[in-house]
Amino acid sequence: MKEVKINTEFIKLDSFLKWCGAATQGAEAKIYILNEEVKVNNEICTQRGKKIRPGDIIEFDGEKYKVV
């Protein structure tokens, strides 16, 4: 599991995918989210604006990312 540090109280899911390097562009992140390819805390999430906070675990493309 990769730990990804954020410097704010929260980050939106689409921005998080760009921040951690899972997506290169916002449009790419949006497609992954809408295609139900992203899990947040073990549940599929289709809200690209979902607030991701420290302690959350994001799963995408066989990788797990823990927000710290």
TrEMBL record:
It comes from the Bacteria. GO terms for molecular function: RNA binding. Keywords: RNA-binding. The keyword RNA-binding applies. The keyword RNA-binding applies. Pfam families: S4_2. This is RNA-binding protein.
